[in-house]
Structures are given as C-alpha cells and as structure tokens.
Write a structure and sequence with these properties.
The structure is a homodimer. Chain A is an alpha/beta fold. The first copy, chain A, has 14 helices and eleven strands. Chains A, B: Belongs to the PlsX family.
C-alpha cells in the first residue's frame, strides 16, 4: 500500500458517441483491466451508467458517476451549447477537470462544441493565441505514430500561432511517446526554401529560432507524403490544411481497404485465397487499425482534453483513455506552459534587445535557456 | 482514306523525366499501338531520340523529332528557366503547341518550370486570373476517376479564382470523361454551411450561382474523405490545400502498399499465402495503380498542357498522352474559353443591374444562358 502511486482520474463524457454510453463504459473497463492506476468519473444519465458499470466488476471501486441529464448532439452548434449546455454530460466532464477532481477529460462528442465548452470552462493557457487539436498519424518510425496539429481548432494560423503549435506539439509528443527531442516539420507544398506562403516562410524562421528553448529539432519543410515519415515526429500546419489532410488520409485508407475487401470476396477462388492469407492480412489490418490512432488532444488549455472519434468503439475509446492517462501522468501540461512562457520571454527580450537594451537581454535570455528541463 | 479522321498531334518534351527519353518514347509507342489517330513531335536530343524511336516501328511514320540540346532539371527554378530556357526540350515542346504544330503538349519535367514556361509561351486565356493544375483521383464512381484542382499552380485562391476553377474543372471533366453535367464540390473542413474560411463561403455562393451557365451541378461543401466519393466529380480547392491533399493521398496509399508487402513477405507461410492470393491482390494493385491517375492538366492557358509525373514509366506516360489526346480531340479548350467568358459577362451584367440598368441586364443574361451548348 505504501508504494502504490496515486491513481489518475479521467473525467469521461459518457454520452454523445455514435455507439452510446455502453461502448464508452466498455472502453473504460478495457482500460481498467490493463491499468491499475486509473480511476473514472463518468458523466451522463445516472440510471443508464449505473447499469452499464455494473456489468464490469473491474470498474466497481474506481468509478464515480455524475448525473447530467442533457446530451450534446452531433449537429448542435458550438454557440448553442455554450448558451444552453450547462446540463450536458460534456459540460459536467469539463467542470470536473477544471475543479481538479480529475487530471484529464475524454469525450466522443461534437468537436466544435467540445472545443467551445473547453475554452469556456478551462480557459486558454497564458499567452496562447489559439488552442490546437493534435491528431495521431501512422508512422514508419519507431513509436509507430507521428502527430499533426492543428487539425481543426481554427481554419487559419499566422506565423506566431504556427510557432506555438510547434512548441505545444513537441511537448505533447515528448510526453506521450517519451521522445527526448522530437523532430518538428512544417507542412508545405515543397521542401525548397523559396516555396509556399509568406506566413509559412516566416514561421519556419521562428520555429528554427525557438528549437533550443522548445527542446525539439526543426527538420524544415515537409510535404503531404511525409506525414507517415520516420524522419519527422510532429507536423505543424494550419487547422484547415490539417483537417483536410487528416480526412484525406482516412478516406484513402478506407478506399483501399474497401477495394481489397471487394477483390477478396469477388469469387470463390478469391475467398479461399483470403482465408489462406488471413494471417498476414490480419497483421496488416492491425497495423493500419484507425482505432489505434484514436484521440485528438486539445492543446493550449488549462487542462488535458482528449477528443475521441464519434464513431469509436470500446477499443478506440480505450486508446483515447490511455492517451489521456499517459499525458496526465507525465505532468506535461505544466511543463508545456513553462516552455511557452520561456519562448514568449525570449521573444520579448529579443525585441527589447533590438531597442538597445543589450545588458538586460543577455542575462535574461541565459536564464530562460538554463532554467528549463 | 476518305473517312479517316485527321490525326491529333501531341508535342512531347521527351527529356526531363526520371527514367529518361527511352521511357518517354516507349510511352509514345504504347499509345500509338492502341490509337491510330495519334501523331507525335518529340523534343530533345536528336541522336538519342532517333535511336529510341527506331526501336518502335509503330512510331516510324507518325513521329517528327525537333532537336533541342538543353534539358530542364528537377532542381531548376522557374525564373532561371524563363530566362535561360530557350534551348530546352520543354521550351521547344510548348512553342510547337503555341504555333499550332500540335494540339496538346506533354512533359515529365519540373512542375514549376513547366507552368512558368507555359504561361510565357501560351499566355493565359482571356479573363483567367490564375491557371490551375487539375489532378485525377481514384473514385468509387462510374468513370473510376474524380478530378481535383488546383493542386499547386498557386498557393492561394480567392473566391473568384475558386469560381474559375469550378468552371474549368467542370469543362475538363465533361470532356475527359464524357459527363454531361459534372458534379462540383468545394473542399472544406465540414459540410455545414457555417464552417470554413470567409472566401470559401463566398466562393460557394458564386459557384452555386454560375451552375447553369457552367453546366455543372453544385453539390456544396465536401471534405477530405469525400475525394474518392461517387457523389462528386470535380473537387475545387486552393493550390496549397490541394497539393497537400494529393501528396497525403499518395503517401497513405504507399504506406499501406508497403505494409501489405512487408506482411506478405514476413515469413514462409505469408509468402505462400501471397502466392495463393496473387489474383485478387493483382486486381487490387491494378485498380489502385497510380500510373492510371498520371497526368496533371494545366487549365486556363491558350493550349492544353499535361504534366506527367517525373517518376512515370512508359505506362504512366502513355496514360498522360491518352489524356492529352482525349482533351485535344474534344476541342474542350475552345468551349471552356467560351464558358468562362459567359460567366464573366453574366457577372458584369449583374453588377450593371445593381447599378440600376435593369433592361440591359435581363436581356443579356437571357442571351448568355441560351447561347451555350
């Protein structure tokens, strides 16, 4: 008992997913079975959740239920939810996080509403212009995952926002995948320096400059076909491009999967061949399983929020919970906040330096670079 | 002899591809073997091309060679090529098109340089703000292809450019795939009307308004996962987003292909299974073969230019040649020019109408809508 670490509590919006609360609770049970350090607060209809939880003895001692009668629907506009959403399970899940009853929150609900309520309840981190959503992407690299951000928090990003995405994305990747110095790339239409939009060229300069303080390596421009590359860990882009890229990748994978399935069921010999090849095809399916990639992390808020895909089943939800747990346990939220503040300080010092106050500049910058770990 | 249709001559930049002129000439031969109505002017090193052409009797009577000593390299900047590129095979190929010695041009060379030299030699169509590059995308639909534009001519597009892309893309699709009324979608981060950037909402309004004159159906917003959809034929977007989406799709397909190959060669049982499943896997490979999708069409110039992928082999090059042939034969270039002019007229009439000249407005608009076919 003495050596047991404190449990990490995840606040879970149990309603709002396509498969309903039963799938969410099953996802919690899958996680609990593998992880003795986890606890849950489930938000939603109490009677429904009590019945669902009762099916999994592993949840008995580690689960609280917060009754909330309302559910945010997929079609609800963020503005509606912000005005009238107080009774919803989403609102309740984020309030529990804000009040430190939990260390991270997970929801399958509508992305726009979840971001709006997260901003309202948690507030942005000091100095953050805009929060971002980071997704996971299958990678040829060691961890098996790259991350890309922003994939839809905002449809535009200027150079300063792109710099913050680089800092937040590196902090996320470092803590989620235990990578000392993540490699950051900036998404562009070519890797040559002269290519792309003006704000992207400027962002490249800022991101290169902040690499030391941000504890990442900047690998320069990357292209769409580099998203699964083993030469980059964090891909930075604006939320419009990132959202299109994410959905294009999903759509392409689905098209290939469907075509493969069609061909393997086209006639009797093909069906036999599929049976014969079930082992390698099963391994392919497992490696490309989108459920492994489930979990969009909201970065730049006072609290860790993980958005699970609306269509996620129990396995997918369990992956999102694992991500929330890993991030909460790592304490990355505090360290990311420190690092963002350091870069802001360094930028300010540099501007002061340009205004001919070199003495202050030199010493303060030294402090900033040394003080972080 | 009396009933034979006039041949369509394709002006081919035979240098500059990754596999050299031998692959380009082989691609021409593949096309000529299937198509009795085609002829070629090949541009490049005369001695090399003569030797290559001599290997294919089918090319003997239908091929001219234009000697040009220089080659545009993949790393050459557009500005360099514009200044010093007169001696190159690319320049020569576009000059032959401009001078009406050929009805379309094909090149495997560097995209940026090809667009720059195309603009210089052919000039933009009257009223076109910016040319666009349209790519092919595998589709679940009947033709097997969708088209997306712009995929990299320009990194930005305002609402007027997006409208022109819709008009040009619809004209292209109609003529390449014999589709009476192509369905046009506008790429966005969601299909709800309130989503996306301001210029995209405005573009949606303009594209909807011009549907009748442009002879397309506007299906509204589409998302990244709709790119292979059977519910849309032409996907309109800016060149930055389009380029990232195109390369993301290619990269995802390659990742899945590589993973499948790894699993099918992982051990002896898997290798046997691969052998056993070679028929359905071969059909999958054929349906997803990127060489079928080869050929980026430059739209908005006084002449049809098809950009083949630099890494295309003879099969890929032959697909690009077929596309150039189909478009040249259809005479779509002239009809597209007419349609762009009609929409510009209609917009102008409407603006005049807003300035209180309703009489002129009504009649002229009627003319425009009736006069086209």
């Amino acid at each position: 008992m003495q050596t047991e670490r404190a449990k990490v509590t995840i606040s879970v919006d149990a309603m709002g997913g396509d498969h309903g609360p039963a799938a969410v609770v099953e996802g919690c049970a899958l996680s609990a079975a593998k992880n003795g350090e986890i606890a849950f607060i489930l938000h939603g209809d109490e009677a429904v959740l009590k019945a669902a939880v009762a099916r999994y003895p592993v949840l008995a001692d580690i689960t609280q239920i917060h009754h909330s009668p309302g559910v945010v629907q997929m079609g609800d506009k963020p503005s509606q939810v912000m005005r009238r959403g107080r009774e919803t399970s989403m609102w309740s899940a984020l309030t529990a996080l804000r009040d430190h009853h939990a260390q991270a929150a997970v929801s399958c609900g509508n992305t726009g509403a979840l971001m709006a309520v997260s901003m309202l309840r948690l507030r942005k981190l000091d100095g953050v212009h805009r929060p971002a959503i980071a997704c996971l992407w299958p990678s040829r690299g060691k961890s098996g995952f790259n991350t890309m951000l922003d994939v839809g928090a905002d449809v535009r990003a200027d150079e300063d926002s792109l710099l913050q995405y680089a800092l937040m994305g590196a902090a996320y990747y470092r803590n989620a995948f235990d990578a000392e110095r993540p490699r950051v790339g900036l998404l562009n239409v070519g890797t040559e320096e002269h290519k792309g939009r003006a704000e992207i060229k400027e962002a490249a300069r800022l991101i290169a400059e902040a690499a030391e303080i941000g504890r990442y390596e900047f690998v320069g421009f990357v292209e769409g076909n580099d998203l699964p590359s083993e030469h980059v860990d964090v891909i930075v882009t604006d939320g419009f491009t990132g959202n299109v890229a994410l959905k294009t990748g999903e759509g392409t994978a689905r098209l290939i999967g469907d075509t493969l399935r069609e061909e393997l069921t086209a006639n009797l010999p093909s069906k036999l061949a599929a049976l014969f090849a079930s082992a390698p095809l099963g391994r392919l399916r497992k490696r490309m399983d989108p459920r492994r990639m489930n979990g969009g992390v909201f970065l730049g808020l006072n609290g860790t929020v993980v958005k699970s895909h609306g269509s996620a089943d129990a396995t997918g939800i369990s992956a999102a919970i694992k991500l929330a747990f890993t991030l909460a346990r790592s304490g990355f939220q505090d360290r990311m906040a420190e690092r963002l503040a350091s870069v802001a300080d360094a930028q300010q010092e540099k501007m002061l330096g340009k205004d001919d106050t070199p003495a202050q500049d030199g010493s303060a910058e030294g402090d900033n670079q040394m003080g972080q770990s």
